[in-house]
Amino acid sequence: MNVISEKIKQLFFDTFSTNPTIVRSSGRVNLIGEHVDYNGGFVLPAAIDKSTYLAIAPSNAETGKWISVDFEKSIDIKFGVFKPLPQHRWAEYILGVVEQFYKRGLQVIPFNCVVTGDIPIGSGLSSSAALESAVAFAINDMNGFGMSKKELTKLAQQAENEFMGVKCGIMDMFASIHGKENHVLRLDCETLDYEYFPLNLGDYKIVLFDTGVKHNLVDSEYNVRRLQCEEGLAFFRKHFDETIPNLSQVPLAWLQASRSQLNPVVYNRCQYVIEENQRMLSACEDLKVGNLRDFGIKLTATHEGLRNLYEVSCKELDFLVDAVWHESAVLGSRMMGGGFGGCTINLIKADVIDDLYARLSILYKEKTGIDLKMYSVVTANGTEIL
Ligand code: GAF
User: pLDDT tens digit string along 230-281?
Assistant: First the structure.
């Protein structure tokens, strides 16, 4: 228990006169392997020490009251009705998860809940996946459904895909649920096999610079990228091998031999995905032998691919990366997550972080008028009942 969990426990008790179960679920970073999860590739995320907290208990009625501390809102919910809640987008993440249990033929005991957390919202640190993971975990526990962590991860992803309409991959929920302190997760998104890698950064730290923007196109462009990748994969299946499981495994030679037949935009998207998957695998080798310099160089190369080939960056992200990547105390810098805003992830020598942040803040404010936020994060455990 910490200050936040104590606070919502008390709020829950004051509101509903009963003690809740408290579930904590982490936000995530992804070191490398961006936009490859939905292409069956490898990713390297970690759960971080910023979390969503859910206080929850059965309501003993057909309805439940859900409260968001951060949005200062509450909503009364009739269980079994699954309609959009346009005034309460935060509650849709909960409802979408409840719906998935119903879709599996599992009737959920109606519940009251209170939600809060310290994951910056809209910064690309997966506050929504953390909430969905916490809700899935809590419902599974409260109802004794006995679902595994992997099943709950898939359920949370389907909630986001189907109720929220965002065709996200599985990385965010997977990291949120399976995270482990001092480790990153090397996840094969095709098979969902995973391995924990110790994260020894020595004198370096994971630093996130928050652009403070989230451009509107984020969800629509994300879905467009998925379609473009599907178009590429269909082409390779038709012309090379119908059994190739996913785009990440397409050999670069097939792509190069197809330049004149593929739409140039689709070509670029495929090039990025194939290269990123290979880069990610070789970055893991760097990490294994403690070669942080080469690891960092690959992070920055990922940014170039996301900017030029995959085209999911934006001027604010590019500005932050361009301003720091060449500094000697910076191992690597890149945009992180879906793109079009959110944070950059940087590996920076601990003793220069404050100075670098001070300099960068001035430049960023001059350029964009926005106050730059910085989060120095460490890895943490995944979803847990406190
Ligand atoms: C978002 C999605 F939710 C993830 O599934 C992943 O595709 C990521 O963008 C890009 O790597 O966070």
Answer: 999 999 999 999 999 999 999 999 999 999 999 999 999 999 999 999 999 9
Q: How does residue 1 score in pLDDT terms, banded at 50, 70 and 90?
A: confident
> What is the distance between the alpha carbons of residues 212 and 376, in angstroms, rounded to a whole number?
16
- What are the tens digits of pLDDT across the range 42-56? 999 999 999 999 999
Least Cα distance to 77 among 57, 91, 58, 56 occurs for 91
Nearest CA to ligand 1 atom 9: 338
Residues 77 and 125 in one domain: yes
Nearest to 219 by CA among 157, 166, 269, 172: 166
Listed residues 198, 213, 239: the one ending a domain: 198
Which ipTM score applies to this complex? 0.99
Q: Is the pTM of this model over 0.80?
A: yes
Domain boundary residue, one of 171, 198, 225: 198
Q: Is the CB of 92 under 6 A from ligand 1?
A: no
Q: Which domain holds residue 65?
A: 3-198
Beta bridge partners of 29: 46
d(CA 35, ligand 1 centre) in Å: 6
CA–centroid distance, residue 83 to ligand 1 (Å): 25
The residue whose two tokens read 């100075």 is 355
Of the residues 70, 76, 172, 294, only one is catalytic, namely 172
pLDDT tens digits for range 113-159: 999 999 999 899 999 999 999 999 999 999 999 999 999 999 999 99
On whether residue 213 sits in a domain, the answer given is yes
Q: Is 225 in the pocket of ligand 1 (CB under 6 A)?
A: no
- Reply yes or no on whether 172 is catalytic: yes
Pocket test for ligand 1, best of 44, 164, 171, 312 (most atoms within 8 A of CB): 171
The number of domains in the chain is 2
183 lines ligand 1 (CB under 6 A): no
Sequence-separated (6 or more) residues with CB below 8 Å from residue 348:
204, 205, 207, 324, 329, 330, 331, 356
Q: Are residues 233 and 172 in the same domain?
A: no
CA of 317 to the centre of ligand 1 (A): 16
